[in-house]
Amino acid sequence: MYNEGRSKKEMEMTYMEEMMTGMINNIFFIIFPIVVYQMFATAGQRNFFVSHRVTMTILFSISIILCMMFPYQFLTDQYIFDLRQVPMIVGALYGGPVVSGILFLVSSIGRIIIGGDGMYIAILNQFVIAAGVPFLRPLYMRINRLGKIALVFCISIASLLFNMFAGAFFFGDPLHDIIGIWVMLMLNQGTIIVLTALLIEHMQRQEYMYNAMLKHEKMETVSHFAAAVSHELRNPLQSIKGFIQLMHEYEYSREKQLEFHQTILEEIITAEDLIDDYLVYAKPTYGQLEPITVSPEVHHVLKIMAPYANGKDVVMQMIEMDEHARILVDRQKFQQALVNIIRNGIEAMPEGGTLAVSVKSSPAKVWIEVADEGVGMTKEEVKRLGEPYFSNKIKGTGLGMMVTYSIISQMNGEVLVDSEKGKGTEFTLEFPNIASVSK
Predict the structure, then answer these.
(1) What transmembrane ranges does the database entry give (predicted)?
(2) Which residues, at least 6 apart from 44, have a Cβ–Cβ distance to it below 8 Å?
């Protein structure tokens, strides 16, 4: 008796394990198209059936087929159940009539191939879902999350009630004998379809927030640009305005007028340069890209910057110079980017110091390194370098680094920054090495 009891208990445990395994498999088949879509769809364009109707229809069709291929017995040996209705209902609500029709054809063909008792009831039930649920789609899209949960749960319950009454009618099963099993089936499928809808709604909400954040960032960038342009242009314009007012109100000698004219011209050139810099950042335009040897260009920039460095008590040193390193760039824009970085390094040492410059290369890469002994930056400040209107300088707008990052990026280069507060900063410009190609 003990062995018989143990054997029966083991059989019950085995049956429960098989049922749970089958149920988990079906849940996985339902979730996998959503997860696959989330992994491979482009961020900012994940709108399920709206943006990727064909892809999602194929994935949900696979989900339906897998659920039908791997059903599970539910509570008794008489009921073999699967969760194909979940992707059918969800697909109809998010995809509309066309998607619903395709999913109906897939499930119907699969059910005909499987055959067996209840085939016609199942196909009729699937047809009711495919024909009726799309009419609820406009309502579903309008209501809030709680309303959506209630609606999908009610649709799921209604579809199973249809099966229950149809089975009782055609097969003569007394309702009082099967009501308990069908209630459990309703709770089982209803819970899973609610969780599926919640998952989709959560992903949709995350996508909406992502798009809203992108839009906000774009608006914030425009705002920063406007503030930077206003701030930078105001100074030369105010100078020009002041000199014109002086010449209008007072009589000055010809020599003094020429001096004013020269100052006005210089301020106009300053404003033009500022506008050119913004155009470079917003829409970079380059002359012809040409292979250049890096070392002569670096020597040229250092020669240009020497007077400025001397005035700040900064000594510029060449630590290492690979004379054979070559890169493909616009010569003028490359020099402009390098000037911006060296100027920043000099200005980071208000008490003077040493600015070390080196050029290194490997068969694949060329590195131009500029290291200062200045005030340095925190990790957060390093991350924000190149952002509009971010600068460590009191009167800076960050325009120089914005332009530098834009120039280097557009010429297939990369800006690497290593900095520590109070110990200095090292900028590294990394470019593909074309020395082997030029040979």
Answers:
(1) 21-40, 52-74, 86-106, 118-137, 149-172, 178-200
(2) 207, 210, 211, 214
In percent, the amount of the chain with pLDDT more than 90 equals: 19
Name the residue type at position 388.
P
Structure tokens at 217: 């960032």
pTM (2 decimals)? 0.55
Which architecture, in CATH terms, is 223-282?
Orthogonal Bundle (1.10)
Contacts of 410 (CB under 8 A, 6+ apart): 284, 286
CA-nearest of 269, 252, 336, 328 to 300 is 336
| Amino acid found at 120 | Y
Main-chain dihedrals φ then ψ at residue 128, nearest 5 degrees: -60, -40
Q: Which amino acid is at 176?
A: H
Bridge partner residues of 356 (DSSP): 317, 371
Residue 4: its pLDDT value, please?
45
- Domain residues of the chain, as ranges? 2-215, 223-282, 290-438
pLDDT digit string, tens, across residues 319-370: 888 888 899 988 888 888 898 899 889 988 988 899 999 999 988 899 999 9
Q: Could you read off the pLDDT of 254-293 as tens digits, one per residue? A: 888 888 888 888 888 877 877 776 666 565 555 678 899 9
How far apart, in whole angstroms, are the C-alpha atoms of residue 157 and residue 136? Answer: 15
Are 431 and 297 contacting, i.e. CB atoms less than 8 angstroms apart? no
**Which residues have a Cβ under 8 Å from the Cβ of 94 and sit 6 or more positions away?**
48, 49, 56, 137, 200
